[in-house]
What does this fold into?
Amino acid sequence: MDVIREQLKKPLVALITGGVIGLIIGWFIIGWGLWPVTWTDASPKELHPGYQEMYLRAAIQAYGANRDDISTAKANWDSLGEEGPAILGRVQGAPGTLDPALIEAFGGAVGTTPVVPAEGTAAPTEAAEKGSSSKLLPFLGILCFVMLLLGGAIALYFYLQNRKFAGTGEKTAAQQALDAARQAEWTDYSAAGEEAPMTQFMSSYRLGDDLFDESFSIDSPAGEFLGECGVGISETIGVGDPKKVTAVEVWIFDKNDIQTVTKVVMSAHAFNDEGIRQRLQAKGEPVKADTGAQTVLETATLRLVARVVDMSYGEGALPEQSFFEGLVLELAVWQK
It folds into this structure.
């Protein structure tokens, strides 16, 4: 989550993200879901060229059955619009079951002359199909405009949020925790004459990061996956926001073991409160949080040492030393 938040601070990333979200909202949700395009009371001139030709053939047949009803013939003809002469030319060129004399009589009744495509020019059907396709352009233009507006609005929101943080220097709890993890000092086990760990991680919590839950993949030097470890909120105290974290869980998973080993790092108040301690003991062995204190978690093939690098308690109406203002834990892992 922290990486995503950091990336969204970049205007280009925010713009691209906004564009993608705008595309999804505009095209799929609005264009296809909420307000899809529907046609009602469409005239024959809106039909596909093949169906226009079928319509005209039916109109000619109707005229042949009742040659005195010229007004109906003209109404049917006018409904085809400007493409009528070209369609009549195609029907005359390939009359099929229609009598050529009837086709000519229909043209005379409606006062038109068939348009036959000249040699070497595009067939009328192709031109009509292109014209039919172009009718979608206005809709696509409006849809693209809506998507751009939505994407631009989202990008502008992220940009203004970034400007706000840049102008005030204010950072979120997760960002503060990330800064604390970067500034924390790593334990140099080899300098103390101990075997260097296979891998080390730094996990940091700050008051206000209500979704704090970090996990890390444990891989061998050759890149083989061995398991996972992490830290997350185990227990809170009091009510209201932000959450007041009084204990966190440190855990390790070994792919070669059947269980996940967990220990609960607790505030001084939680550790000394018999009720809280007994309740949390079901999650894992309770450990009191003290700066520099270490606790060991072992599985079938892995050994993890969790060290409290830095910590501070919050202040307020709750009991003293009952919730963390900040907590930085170092996780060092060895393979047995």
In short: The longest strand covers residues 225-236.
